[in-house]
Every structure is written in C-alpha cells, then in structure tokens.
Amino acid sequence: MPWLQVRLAISPEQAETYEDAFLEVGAVSVTFMDAEDQPIFEPELNTTPLWAHTHLLALFEGGTEAASVLAHLELLTGSPLPEHHSEVIEDQDWERSWMDGFQPMRFGQRLWIVPSWHTAPEPDAVNLLLDPGLAFGTGTHPTTALCLEWLDGQDLKGCNVLDFGCGSGILAIAALLLGAHEAVGTDIDVQALEASRDNAGRNNIAAECFPLYLPEDLPQVKADVLVANILAGPLVSLAPQLSSLVKPGGRLALSGILAEQGDEVATAYARDFDLDPIANRDGWVRITGRRR
Known about the structure:
The protein is an alpha/beta fold. The protein contains nine helices and 15 strands.
C-alpha cells in the first residue's frame, strides 16, 4: 500500500504545534529528523532535544489528498505553512531492506561478524553470527569496529572478560570465540541482555560462559580484560568503578567517545592505567591500556 508523506521544515519551537496538528488531521506517524547533520549526544535526562533546523515527516494512508491535509493544517495553526513538500512513497518490506544492507564484515585478521541470515564468507575463520534485535552493536559503527579490531589483536586465551554495556553482546561473544574462558556482560537495558543471550545461543556459547547481569546485580568481578563501548560521560563518572574491576596487569578498552572527548576520558583512567596512544576513526576514538 502506498503512503502520502508530508515534510515540513520547522524550528524546535514549532515542533509541538505541528506534531499535534498533523495527528489531528489523521497522520498515522510523525517523525522528527535532522535537516543539517547536527548530531546530538548525551541529552539531558528527561529531555527530547531537537535540531536548530528540523524536518517533521508525517505519514498518511494511501489515497489521502495532500492539498486537503495542507489546507487543514493552515486552519488548525492559523498561519501559513513553513517550507513543505509532499510525495507518495511506495510501501516496502522495511525489515528485509535493512537485512539486505547488513553484510558480513571482517575485523582484524581472524574475526568476521556475519548476519545470522548470511553464509560465512570464510568458514574456517572466527565467525560471529549476529542478529542485533533491538540492541546496539552490529560492527557497522566506528566505536564497535575499533573495539572488535582491538579484541582480534589480543591474546585472550583463558582470559576472563567483562563487557560493560554489552548491548547485543557482540564484544563479549567475540572475545569468547577468540579464546576467552569466560565473558561477563552487563547492561541497563533488559532488552539488551535478552539480545545478548539470544546471540550467545546463536553462536553455541553455553550460558555459564556468558553470565548476564543488570548493573545493580553485577558481582565484584576482577577481569583480565574489560571492554566498555558506551558514552564519554558515563565512562568518566564510572572510572573508579571500572578501574576497580580490572586485575593488576589487566587490559582495558573504552569507546563510544568522540574525538574531542578523548583527552578527558583518558585523564580519568591515567592514574590507574598505562595508556596506549589513542586510536581514532571517523571522529570517534578508542582508549586502551594496562592496569598498574
């Protein structure tokens, strides 16, 4: 079934007015999009920040007349519409479209991330079968890629690994497939823990090798290797806790950090770790080091 899509160029102050108006005239969904590639990171708690130049997209069922929608919007808001555009878009299988775009990817020398619906390109390599579900972490983002490449370059045989903010479980499962003895995963999102559990099963990893916890239930482990691909703010505030979870001589890898945040995060860990040069990719960085 085709859909009518109406796009308005609005300011943040106009967002609520036009969102309400679109819903009033029968929109089945309303979405806000960045009009100028201005990412927002770590918004304040309980806020929904918008960009200085925002596009509002509204979808209507096929057969809806664009002219009628626009006329009703003007009546409801009592003012001329901002810059706008309408078009009919054809329906498609959005899940299939996303799946077709997620292809096997190689990280380092040994490791492949293979979507669970694909055949592994190199059957004899270390192949991690992944279906991220609703959780973050497929390897496509630079922060995840940086961590996967680092893990591929480590000797993990017999190590205990802690994945802090495990998301889809991709880093912990990679560590296990690369030789780690055990990986502990923790995340604040119950759906992430479920995705991690599903992906572990998909890779024939026994539950006892990959215990999963909410942060408040996490035991006071001492890890040989700790990976945390979260955000710079939490990494700084959690530095004392994360440092205490790494054994003397243990290794640390942190990401989810913008390049301009790298020095602040590194400073938070410099007292307890001998840090390596910061690795940078596409404006994101990875910080690694060894516990003193």
